[in-house]
Design goal:
- This protein has 276 residues and is α+β, with helices and mostly antiparallel strands.
- Helix content is 35%, strand content 21%.
- The chain is built from five helices and 13 strands.
- The strands form five sheets. Strands 5-6-7-8 form a four-stranded antiparallel sheet, covered by helices on one side. Strands 9-10-11 form a three-stranded antiparallel sheet, with helices on one face. It has a two-stranded antiparallel sheet with strand order 1-2.
- It is extended and about 85 Å long.
- The chain starts with 6 loop residues before the first strand and ends with a strand.
Length: 276
């Protein structure tokens, strides 16, 4: 199999040479055109055929849902800026935005322009990759619990200095626990590390904001469930005393409890629960 030999793309069937294809983890080939339908940061050597197909089928919808999420962001900890913020990192210009309500972010740079979709990344996946073999459920859960550590700064900056002690190169590493992406690296020759640290701090702080909102939402749901339980008990007792049907009051309470868990209920200033 030489440099000029051709292999068929497992997705479109086009036969392409070595410079226009990549080999998947499952040993099939993917042509550059089909590769551009996947995630720019995905490593094909980690990616199975099924995983590549899944990316092709879902990335566009994820991006559309992320765009729509800016219209519905709300809450005390919500931080959702539709416009991209820009960092000049040496020879690279990086654009970044996040929505801490849903816990997702996007990165964009010129090298990604030939890819069809600007992918969405998730804060709960932004932890160091760990291979999970069969029977590793306990250790996997322990590993996954790391994303709840608000003190962790998972995004790091590596700085390379020359013999004279001056900065010559910087790299941001965003760990990512995904079968196709084990880390997101952005690097460039530069004499100024400050913008790299600034971007890393921004991503880390947005992750903490998302965690804060998740904890706040859980606490708020618990308070509403307690209120609903009391209201349901009072309504059932009132129905029983008046000769009515307490079953209907209990059913309404169960429906309200389910709606609270699904985020379909709000609480007024006076503690009254009502549907959105």
């Amino acid at each position: 199999m030489g440099l000029f030999s051709k292999e068929a793309c497992t997705f479109c069937g086009t036969e392409v040479g070595a410079l226009k294809r990549s080999k998947l983890a499952t040993k099939e080939f993917i042509c550059n055109e089909c590769k551009r339908k996947t995630n720019y940061f995905a490593r094909m050597s980690y990616t199975s055929r099924d995983a590549a197909r899944h990316m092709m089928d879902t990335l566009a919808q994820e991006a559309a849902d992320f765009e729509a999420s800016f219209d519905t962001a709300e809450g005390r900890f919500a931080k959702a800026e539709r416009s991209f913020n820009t960092w000049d990192l040496g020879s690279k210009r990086i654009h970044y935005r996040s929505n801490t309500t849903i816990g997702a972010f996007q990165l964009n740079m010129s090298e990604m322009s030939r890819y069809e979709v600007n992918p969405v990344f998730w804060f709960d996946t932004m932890i160091p990759y760990e291979f999970k073999g069969e029977g590793d459920d306990f250790f996997s859960e322990t590993h996954r619990s790391k994303f709840m550590d608000a003190a962790a700064n998972h995004v790091e900056v590596d700085v390379t200095k020359g013999d004279d002690g001056k900065v010559i190169h910087c790299m941001i590493t965003i760990p990512y626990d995904d079968a196709c992406i084990r880390e997101i690296k952005i690097e460039s020759d530069t004499d100024d590390a400050a913008p790299f640290y600034d971007l890393a701090d921004r991503i880390n702080s947005d992750r903490r904001a998302w965690l804060g909102k998740a904890e706040f939402d859980a606490e708020r749901k618990n308070r509403m469930q307690v209120r609903n339980l009391g209201d349901t008990a009072a309504a059932a007792l009132k129905a029983a005393v008046s000769g009515g049907d307490a079953t209907e009051a209990v059913k309404k309470g169960i429906d309200m409890a389910n709606d609270i868990e699904e985020g379909k209920v709000k609480q007024s200033f006076w503690g009254k629960l009502f549907k959105k």
